[in-house]
Amino acid sequence: MKNVTDSFVSLGHWPSAGSFGFNTDIFSTNLINLSVVLGVLIFFGKGVLSDLLDNRKRRILNTIRNSEELRGGAIEQLEKARARLRKVEMEAEQYRVNGYSEIEREKLNLINSTSKTLEQLENYKKETVQFEQQRTINQVRQRVFQQALRGALGTLNSCLNNELHLRTISANIGMLESMKEITD
């Protein structure tokens, strides 16, 4: 390795034979080399770099355009959603108002039907009471009649003798025969 560096160092000591030679000053040669490399890169890389920048610019513009379109679509969807929300809110309010009025109507109908049912039950109760009173009165009459009949039969049996009994039977038979002749 020392031989290689020695050869470069020894080249630096060559006498200049015109305008060609090696400069061993590192700082000045680096600047020259760097400017040459930059010049070559700019000359040959200008087209590639401008193409890369143009492609990047186009992609950014397309992304911005797509974003704007998406933003417009999102705003449009937001407006549609707000319109639907307003419509639904109005319908909900209408249902709420209609619901309250329907509830009031049902409440009045229920009160009226309950009132009618109570009136019918009251009438049924009155009829039942009247029927029971009439039935009780009829039962009392029947018992009174039965007791009166027993008392009359007891009185008749104690007062009637056989002769009176036979005359009563004969009179009743006579009445029945006369009724039979009238109907024929």
UniProtKB/TrEMBL annotation:
The chain crosses the membrane at residues 31-49. It is found in: Membrane; Plastid, Chloroplast thylakoid membrane. Residues 71-98 form a coiled coil. One of its GO terms (cellular component) is proton-transporting ATP synthase complex. It holds the Pfam family ATP-synt_B. GO terms for molecular function: proton-transporting ATP synthase activity, rotational mechanism. It comes from the Eukaryota. It is a single-pass membrane protein. CDD domains: ATP-synt_Fo_b. Keywords: ATP synthesis, CF(0), Chloroplast, Coiled coil, Hydrogen ion transport, Ion transport, Membrane, Plastid, Thylakoid, Transmembrane, Transmembrane helix, Transport. F-type ATPases have 2 components, F(1) - the catalytic core - and F(0) - the membrane proton channel. F(1) has five subunits: alpha(3), beta(3), gamma(1), delta(1), epsilon(1). F(0) has four main subunits: a(1), b(1), b'(1) and c(10-14). The alpha and beta chains form an alternating ring which encloses part of the gamma chain. F(1) is attached to F(0) by a central stalk formed by the gamma and epsilon chains, while a peripheral stalk is formed by the delta, b and b' chains. In plastids the F-type ATPase is also known as CF(1)CF(0). F(1)F(0) ATP synthase produces ATP from ADP in the presence of a proton or sodium gradient. F-type ATPases consist of two structural domains, F(1) containing the extramembraneous catalytic core and F(0) containing the membrane proton channel, linked together by a central stalk and a peripheral stalk. During catalysis, ATP synthesis in the catalytic domain of F(1) is coupled via a rotary mechanism of the central stalk subunits to proton translocation. Belongs to the ATPase B chain family. This is ATP synthase subunit b, chloroplastic. It comes from Pentasachme caudatum. The lineage of its organism: Eukaryota, Viridiplantae, Streptophyta, Embryophyta, Tracheophyta.
